[in-house]
Design a protein that fits this description.
By secondary structure, the chain is mainly alpha-helical. It has 18 helices and no strands. The chain has one domain.
Length: 459
């Protein structure tokens, strides 16, 4: 039976262009819906006042850290599970799935405690503005203490993704996003008899959407995912499997967590000028998700294909997937670059931008978006490293880009030339990342991909 399932696995025999399209498209669609809800969420908050938008923008490092831990753990699960299926190690695949669910629950408990104890302190180190403290503390408390939906939804999606069932992720993410979008105006402004909760309402809408997506994801894994068994009865954590998950996952977690450090640092630099600049930076992150989310969806379809075919020792399929993914990602990014330059003022207008916000935001978005030209290649290269078990390469590039280049460059440019110069740190950092990613890609090809045969795989 196991051999029969293996023969039917499309990641080993379907033509790569069709396979990448069928694996990625549901994820791209679902992530575009996610991007829409991110924008709608902030657009409704912006209708309250600019302080509300700034407070939610300042929460980004915390939310990004939770996403980093959940997605990074998921990347580790994904790589181990897909490779195990490619190697026909079905029991190892089941262990990866079960231990992954355990790690999702454990991660949630950590963030719930941090949210209970540290929500107000997080804002106090950034500002003493009473309104920002009030709005921000409410928001961070809810999205951390009730984040179990986020963690288990992401793990459930990665399990479906690892076995090629990405179509169901479109439903889980879509459901969560649609519920969030519906609840946002109702809870923020108190429609249909509900109390007016303002920023607190946005937080409640977010976690309710995540919980709904989680429930549907668990249902799909139990009823539709036939290649793995996630029955937790009698489960005991297995340290060897957890170690293998985190060998890939921890570099990914650190890599994405660095984004939280970077945003926190940039916000501190921007606050030297005006809180409006922080709002602009927050708006940029919401808007750029429309460009980056499709690339992340493409990556989510690509990673199990490469991991599976690495386990199956199919060098040609690995490289065909890699180059096709890079070409698609760069194309998406160039379209995004054009949109950011042509429709800059209109994009900012979605967030009730004041004249002051437009004066800061128009040049900011046009300058930062120049980094899109290089970011697509860097994102795909980093995911290839992770799929092949070399997540540390992604970590090296991310550290260089976001800590060693962006923050120092932004600080120096702010001191020398003022606020508008800060934004140039982003394209500078992506150029450095392109150079590093290319060097490391050539190295991993030489060491891991080029020697592949049907008999041997490098460790």
């Amino acid at each position: 039976m196991a051999e029969e399932i293996q023969k039917e696995n499309k990641m080993g025999n379907m033509p790569i262009p069709k396979l990448l399209f069928t694996m990625s498209m549901p994820m791209i669609v679902s992530m575009l819906v996610q991007a829409l809800y991110n924008v709608v969420d902030s657009a409704f908050v912006a209708r309250l006042n600019e302080d509300a938008l700034t407070a939610v923008s300042m929460a980004f490092p915390v939310q990004n850290l939770m996403i980093a831990v959940s997605v990074g753990t998921g990347v580790g699960i994904n790589a181990l599970l897909s490779r195990s299926l490619g190697e026909k190690q079905y029991e190892q695949a089941n262990l990866a799935a079960r231990n992954g669910l355990f790690l999702g629950i454990a991660s949630y408990l950590v963030f719930a405690v941090l949210g209970l104890l540290g929500s107000r302190q997080f804002y106090l180190v950034q500002t003493d503005d009473p309104e920002l403290l009030f709005y921000g503390t409410q928001y961070v408390f809810v999205v951390t203490v009730f984040s179990f939906g986020l963690f288990l939804a992401v793990i459930s999606e990665r399990l479906l993704q690892s076995t090629g069932l990405t179509i169901y992720n479109m439903y889980t993410q879509g459901l969560g996003a649609v519920i969030n979008i519906i609840l946002d105006p109702i809870l923020i402004f108190g429609l249909f008899g509900f109390p007016r909760l303002e920023v607190l309402g946005a937080a409640v809408a977010t976690v309710v959407g995540q919980i709904c997506g989680m429930l549907l994801g668990v249902f799909f894994n139990l009823r539709k995912n036939k290649e793995i068994n996630i029955n937790m009865k009698g489960f005991r954590p297995e340290m060897s499997t957890i170690k293998r998950i985190y060998q890939v996952g921890i570099p990914s977690i650190i890599m994405q967590s660095i984004g939280s450090v970077m945003v926190f640092g940039i916000n501190k630099i921007l606050m030297m000028f005006t809180s409006t600049a922080v709002s602009v930076f927050g708006v940029y992150f919401k808007l750029q998700s429309f460009i980056f989310m499709p690339v992340f969806g493409l990556n989510n379809g690509m990673v199990p294909i490469i991991a599976y075919n690495y386990g199956a020792r199919e060098k040609k399929r690995i490289m065909q997937t890699a180059w096709l993914s890079i070409g698609a990602a760069v194309t998406i990014m160039l379209v995004g670059l054009a949109g950011f330059h042509v429709f800059t003022a209109q994009l900012l207008g979605i967030f009730e931008a004041s004249p002051d916000m437009l004066a800061i935001g128009v040049p900011a978005l046009r300058i930062i978006s120049l980094s899109f030209s290089f970011a697509g290649y860097n994102i795909v290269a980093g995911s290839i490293f992770q799929a092949l078990g070399n997540g540390v390469y992604s970590l090296m590039v991310s550290v260089a880009r976001q800590l060693l280049v962006i923050l120092p460059s932004a600080f120096v440019l702010a001191e020398i030339s003022g606020l508008n110069a800060v934004w140039w740190a982003f394209p500078i950092a992506e150029i450095v990342a392109v150079i590093m990613s290319t060097i490391l890609f050539r190295r991993i090809y030489r060491i891991k991909i080029q020697p592949l045969t049907k008999e041997t795989v490098s460790a």
